[in-house]
Amino acid sequence: MEGSARKKLIQVVAILLFIAVSLCCLYKVYDVLRWKDTTGDYLSSFEQLYATADDLIDVAFVGSSHCFCGITPAFMWEEKGIAGFDMSVSGQDRDSAYHHIKELLKSQSPKVIVVDLFALTFDEHAEEGNIYRNLLSMRTSKNSVELVTEYAHKSEWENYISRFPIVHTRYRELTEYDFDLPAQNDYGRGALFQFRENPQTKYVIDEKKVEKTELSDDNKEWLEALIKLSKDENFELEFMILPMVMDEELRSIFDSAERYLEEKGIAVLDYNEISGINIDYATDFADPTHLNSFGSKKVTVHLGEYLSDKYALSDHRGDAKYKQWDDDLTWYYQAKADYEFNASEYYDDVVKKAVSMPNALTVISLEGISEEEPYDFYTPLEAFGMTFEDYLSGGKWLYRDGTLTKVCENDLSAPDYVYDINKKDTLKIRYNGDYLYDENIMLNNESLYCHGAKITIAVYDLFLEEPVAVKGF
Amino acid sequence: MLFNSIHFLIFFPVVAGLYFVIPRKLKAAFLLLASYFFYMCWNPKYIVLILITTVVTYTVGLLMGKDMSDKKKKVLMGVGFFINFGLLFLFKYLDFSISIINKLLGPLHISAISNPFDFLLPVGISFYTFQAIGYCIDIYRGDVKPEKNFIKYALFVSFFPQLVAGPIERSKNLLSQIDEMGKKKTLWNRDSIVSGFTMMMYGLFMKMVIADRVAIFVDKIYGNLYLVGTAEMLLAAFGFSIQIYADFAGYSAIAIGAARFMGIDLMENFNTPYFAASIADFWRRWHVSLSTWFRDYVYIPLGGNRKGTVRKYINLMITFLVSGLWHGASLSFVAWGGIHGIYQVVGDVTKPIKERACKALGVKKDVFSYKLGQIICTFLLTTFAWIFFRAGSIGVALTYIKRMFTRWNPWAFFDESLYTWGLDRVESLILFVALLVIFAISVVRYKTGDDIGKALLKQNLWFRWVVLIFFMVAIVVYGEYGITFSSNKFIYFDF
Q: How far B190 CA lies from chain A's nearest CA (Å)?
């Protein structure tokens, strides 16, 4: 090769290499800045889908927040061993639902897809964030571009397709999760766990006010597209309406959809009408249109039995390939225990919950305790294996995996106790002279000490890798 | 099509890529088509204006190239001037002229006249008109020969990188390069590509990270003159100095970079203007292509400094007032030009006094502090003049100046209230770091004379890559663009 030709070749290689390195850098930057949230709190059903190995999901539930609040695959797994998954996104509209199913079908071959009909009730998103959730959560592909061109106005296509024009200002809101997503994105199955009870009053529908209108053309088109997709892709299609406080206007839309689908021989599972699941409006709702996990359990168990009977779905429990479903169930119980610990107020109850909590790291700080306390603080602590002498000697006690260890005396000369809980969290415990110091128990730079309390109980969730609560007495 | 748009991000690589591979003979025609497409993305109708300017000046040039008397040449020049400046007047200055006439008619109780036309200002009309007129004058003077190839000439008038906001090229420089385009044997030149790309990235950094970020603060202050005090107004005045520099120098850098990428060298337009030690020095560094145009085609033909001191000052004032008017059809632009003229005249008149004062006070002139003092004074004077440029009217400018010196609120520098005017702590920090970057680059330019494209070419590969990737990431992440941002046009598009 001649010198000049070789020189040119080297130059071309250098330019190509520069382009490659630049693109890698920009991709890494995009990966940090990109939209990551479909349910809130950095939890994304798409991340969870992409973390799932091919062809494991048997049943997918498609819909908006009603779906991820109302259907909890963990219950179906616990009861029947069904590998379910909520392919649901806050405010999922019709176009998004269709393309989210297509995205799911790229890697999964579900036998059944159950679609929530709430998308029939609105045409456009009321919240900008929901547009981002639905349009930007998928990986960029032909499918995601098609969704943008169907949903967004032409003038916004370039923004949604290239994504940077929308997400680049996220540099102002980056958190640790933008660099390292929460572990729940690896095993979560799309559901949102909510334990808050928000009593509702059932709206009694005046049937005279329910208009018998025909389903709109857009809604018909969507249902037809889903039916065609189910035939083309060979999956069974079911429709459902989840419990909510419903008025006549919504009822009218759902009724028209039910009539339309009935004509085609497709029944709709309307959980506002199905008797026997005993939805309690006092305890089973998180808000007027969303079930909490207690309500979700009732619907999901019923739906699991229905699907299992109708489609003879396999029980995958015990199969190592389905570990994500096991972890999802563990997460549910862990989140429930965390919630209950947080909600408890009385000393005896707090200690009891702390003792029984799975995967917990508990710090009990005893400062200024004397033999003649007006309240019996000691007896509940026996459950931790603490003797009365231990109790009286005070100090700070760390409880992990069944082991109780005193880590810090009430002694100013005692060295700090430092414990790396995991890669991101470090616990530092010290004695500062009395219980009025806030920096007695520190998790990274955050105090886990209850100012002015003689007894502080701080609990850290080892499964979810986050502090649960600090209680002081 | 804005340089900082996704359309240009697609347009430029496609055009540059095709330019490298198409046969040499077709390169000029291809670039001409691309340039017309580029221009028509704004308003397809206005391509007619460029065509008229091109055909008229091409014809005038060809005719003047023939053996004819000076008188005939002058007539031809007059026709060329009339048509081109007529178009410029019609689209840019008619409305302004009518408003002036109406102001004069008002006290006489004569009913106001209305503008029979309601045209949008064609983007870049002042730039390509001046470029084409400059070509005619060059031929009239015999400095260049007429270009016979219409396609090459049309490309000279409408070459897309510099079509809408300059640099205003000289026929001597650009036409010869267009002519060479069809003769070059090498397909592409790595140094040109690297240097051009660097200039483009730097320009985008200046525009998107700095100019458009400062603009948020400046616009808020100018939009709330009666709610702010001295602190905010001082910062906004300095902010606009930075904004207009980063905006216009940024545009020029992209234009020069895009042309250089394709192997064409455009003239420099900015040479560290805020390091100027005097107003005259400032104009040798700021918008060089325009200031030299006015020097060569207005100031010198008027007699320059060859006809005595008084005439020199008159010529200076005329040149700067016309320059102000070139920037916009508003008295505030004329005032801005006039202030710069006055600066120069006063500077010249007081020069002996300054000399004597320095001597009497024992001021050392060959030390850094003296130079720094000169630079600071010049920057303050230009910043003051920019108030008229930004204000939109002389009334607003005077109000701004009055309030800036009378609404004393130094506590605003300490109570963090400055962060409430569009740029919070994070945005201000980003701006500060970005300003440090252009300051460092400007120092290199000042010391070596090399623009960043050429300076970086002298460095090792790893350093070039780091700098370029820094620019890319900074533009993509910290650039002002996208859904939450209504992209500012480049300020000089309206001129």
A: 7
Burial class for A197, CB neighbours closer than 10 Å (0-12, 13-18, 19+)? middle
Amino acid making up residue B431: L
Q: Cα–Cα distance between B187 and B181 in angstroms, integer?
A: 10
Ordered by start, the domain boundaries in chain A are: 34-335, 346-472
Selection from A375, A423, A381, A424 nearest residue A399 by Cα: A381
Which among B113, B85, B89, B109 has a CA at the least distance from the CA of B99?
B113
Write the residue in B469, B479, B483 that is nearest to A22 by C-beta.
B469
Beta strands in B50-149 (DSSP E): none
Return d(Cα B350, Cα B313) in angstroms, integer: 13
Q: Is the peptide bond preceding residue B167 cis, with omega within 30 degrees of 0? A: yes
Cα dihedral B3, B9, B12, B16 sign: positive
- Alpha-carbon torsion A439, A445, A449, A450, what sign? positive
ipTM of the complex: 0.81
At A268, is the secondary structure helix, strand, or coil?
Answer: strand
Enumerate the residues of chain B whose CB falls inside 8 A of the CB of residue A162: 6
- Pairwise CB contact (< 8 Å): B476 & A21: no
Of all residues in chain A, the percent with pLDDT exceeding 70 is: 99
H helices within A314-386, ranges in order? 323-343, 347-356, 378-381
CB contact under 8 A, B193 and A168: no
Q: So which residues of B are the catalytic ones?
A: 327
With contact defined as beta carbons under 8 Å apart, do B159 and B169 qualify? Answer: yes
DSSP SS3 for B313: helix
Q: Could you tell me if A165 lies within 8 Å of chain B, comparing CB atoms?
A: yes
Q: Of B96, B69, B88, which Cα lies nearest the Cα of B133?
A: B88
3-state secondary structure of A38: coil
Domains of chain B by residue range: 19-187, 189-270+407-495, 277-392
- Asked whether the beta carbons of residue B476 and residue A25 sit closer than 8 angstroms, the reply is no
Query: Can you point out the beta strands (E) in B245-328?
Result: none
The phi, psi pair for A210, rounded to 5°, reads -80, 110
> CA of A97: how far to CAs of A260, A436, B154, B495, in Å?
19, 55, 53, 49
Scanning every residue of chain B, which has its alpha carbon at the shortest distance from the alpha carbon of A160? B483
- The tens place of each residue's pLDDT in chain B, 495 residues long, gives 888 888 899 999 999 999 998 988 899 999 999 999 999 998 888 899 999 999 999 999 999 888 788 888 889 889 988 998 898 888 888 888 888 888 887 777 777 677 666 677 788 888 999 999 999 999 998 888 999 999 999 999 999 999 888 799 998 899 989 988 877 776 678 899 999 999 999 999 999 999 999 999 999 999 999 999 999 999 999 999 999 999 999 999 999 999 999 999 999 999 999 999 999 999 999 999 999 999 999 999 898 888 888 999 999 999 999 999 999 888 999 999 999 999 999 999 999 999 999 889 988 888 999 999 999 999 999 999 999 999 989 999 999 999 999 999 999 999 999 999 999 999 999 999 999 999 999 999 999 999 999 999 999 999 999 999 999 999 999 999 887 644 444 555 555
Chain B residues with beta carbon closer than 8 angstroms to that of A29: 473, 476-477
Fold type of domain A34-335? Rossmann fold (3.40.50)
Residue B194, Cβ density class (10 Å: 0-12 exposed, 13-18 middle, ≥19 buried): buried
Among A169, A170, A171, A172, the residue to mutate for chain B (most B Cβ within 10 A): A169
